[in-house]
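Predict the 3D structure for this chain.
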Amino acid sequence: MNIEIRDASLEARIQKQLQATGSASVEEVLLRLIETQEEQDRWLLESREAINAKIRRSIDQLDRGEGIPEDQLDAYLAKLKAQPE
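Done. Predicted structure below.
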């Protein structure tokens, strides 16, 4: 199979990935990208119910007025980021 890339910006992105990953060829870059995408797709499929449950729970919390007011959100997120893991 031969693939012709006509979009210069796409070709530049592929070349950037080639250099960044130390891949030996464009084929290796494409293989790595496809494997990564397949892994993400599998994770989303496996996690879909849990993700939807969290979204429903969050919407319910907002409906009950338990959300964080927008003017306090930045401070709240900064506090969370400052907590040790």
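The mean pLDDT is 94.
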